[in-house]
Amino acid sequence: MPLISLDRSKTSLRAAALARRAALSETARAAAAQALLGRPFPLAITAGDVVAGYFPLRGEFDPRPLLQALAEQGARLALPAIVGPDRPLAFRAWHPGEPLVKGQLGIPEPAAAAPALTPRTLLVPLAAFDRAGHRIGYGGGYYDRSLEALRRDGVVTAIGLGFAVQEIPLVPALAHDARLDLVLTEAETIDFRS
Q1: CATH of domain 3-191
Q2: Which residues make up the binding site for ATP (predicted)?
Q3: 135 is in an annotated binding site
Q4: DSSP percent split of the chain into helix, strand, coil, nearest 5
Q5: How far apart are CA 62 and CA 21, in angstroms?
Q6: Which of 25, 26, 67, 141 is the most buried (most CB within 10 A)?
C-alpha cells in the first residue's frame, strides 16, 4: 500500500475510533477507569518499579485511578514530557496530586526540575488498536520513538489503555510503528506477548 494511501487510511480509522470514544458518557468513562481496579494488573509490581502513565486529554482513557493503585503497591510514577520535535519523550517523576505545568503542546506534565526516570512499564494512550498489538496514536510518533529508545536500552512493557469501542479489525502498521505488549480496556486484558 502506498504511503499516502496508508496515511489516509490511518487518518480515517483514527477519526472513526475517536468519534466512538467521544460518544461515551462521562459516567461510562469513569466506570471504565474503575473497572481496571477490579481485576489483577497483568504485571507483577515490586517496590521501586517505575510505571509511566499520561495525563488524559480529549476523552482519553483515564489512567489516574490505576496509577494511584500501582503507587499504593510501591511503584514509582512518571509522566511524559515532550522535549523536542522528532525526539523520544522524557519521563519525569510524579506523585498523584502534585501540580503539573503546561508542556510544549499544552499537555500537563511534571516540571522540568522533576527527576528523570526510566519506566519498566509504560501506559500508552491510543486512538485505535487491533488484536495484533498495533495502535494508532495521534500522528506525532512520540510513543513510537520512545518505545524504540526504551526497548533498545532495556526491558519495557508497553500497555495500551483504551475503551473497547476503539478496537478496529486491522491497523495499517509500518515497520517503525511500535507494537504494544498488552491492551487494557474496561472489558478485558488483551495480551500480545506470546
Answers
A1: 3.40.50.10420
A2: 10-14, 135-143
A3: yes
A4: 30, 20, 50
A5: 12
A6: 67
Tens of pLDDT, residues 126-147: 999 999 999 999 888 999 999 9
Nearest alpha-carbon partner for 180 in 131, 138, 118 = 131
13 is in an annotated binding site: yes
How do residues 113-125 score in pLDDT, each as one tens digit?
Answer: 999 999 999 999 9
Domain boundaries, the chain: 3-191
CA gap 78, 100 in Å, rounded: 12
Does the annotation flag 14 for ligand binding? yes
**Residue 14 CB-density burial (10 A; 0-12 exposed, 13-18 middle, 19+ buried):** buried
Query: What residue type is assigned to position 19 of the chain?
Result: A
Q: Is 102 annotated as a binding residue?
A: no
Task: Tell whether residue 54 is among the known ligand binding residues.
Answer: no
- Is residue 27 part of an annotated ligand binding site? no
